[in-house]
Design goal:
By secondary structure, the chain is of the alpha+beta class. The protein has one domain: Deoxyribonuclease I, Chain A (4-Layer Sandwich), CATH 3.60.10. Helix content is about 20%, strand content about 30%. It has a 5-stranded mixed β-sheet with strand order 3-4-5-6-9, with helices on one face. It is globular, with a radius of gyration of 16 Å.
């Protein structure tokens, strides 16, 4: 397992040894918030990006660094590669009509600054938030509970 830790938060991939043995290379930690993994299957390449986005109350410099590192990571991926985001974006989705083609009608929550950043990046790179496509019960969509308000929110997304 490759892991980088930031204030108790971690970005990691856990890979079975049997699977890791066939990888041409192990996951690469870009920084404490981004991890990349390239997997070969035949002639196809897929780059899995596991982000841990800064929270809304994070310092602006931390947010800017995350955006810059994410842009650099995306720019380093060959056009023929499949791109998969699996991770904690600290965001919620809401208006599927405005973001048609990026999210579907089954998103939930109210948009925040991280939402706009993420959806803009998805639109620019033709990526779709896949877990907003499926109609699920609310309890199956939520991944985090606000400690003070005790509201549940979906923060983790699968984007391809």
């Amino acid at each position: 397992m490759i892991q980088e830790v930031l204030n108790g938060r971690a970005v990691s991939f856990t890979i079975r040894n049997k699977i890791a043995d066939v990888f041409p290379e192990l996951p690469l930690g870009v920084n404490e918030r981004l991890t990349l993994c390239v997997h070969l299957r035949g002639n196809q390449l897929a780059t899995v990006i596991s982000p841990c986005a800064p929270t809304l109350d994070s310092d602006e410099k931390v947010k800017e660094r995350f955006c810059s590192d994410l842009n650099n990571a995306l720019a380093s991926i060959p056009r023929d590669d499949k791109v998969i985001f699996l991770g904690d974006f600290n965001t919620q989705t809401d208006d599927h009509e405005i973001w048609s083609g990026t999210i579907d009608k089954n998103g939930m929550g109210k948009a925040n600054a991280n939402t706009i950043l993420l959806l803009t990046k998805c639109a620019q790179t033709s990526l779709i938030m896949r877990n907003t496509i499926f109609c699920q019960k609310k309890r199956l969509k939520i991944t985090w509970r606000h400690p003070r308000l005790e509201h549940w929110h979906p923060l983790d997304y699968i984007i391809v």
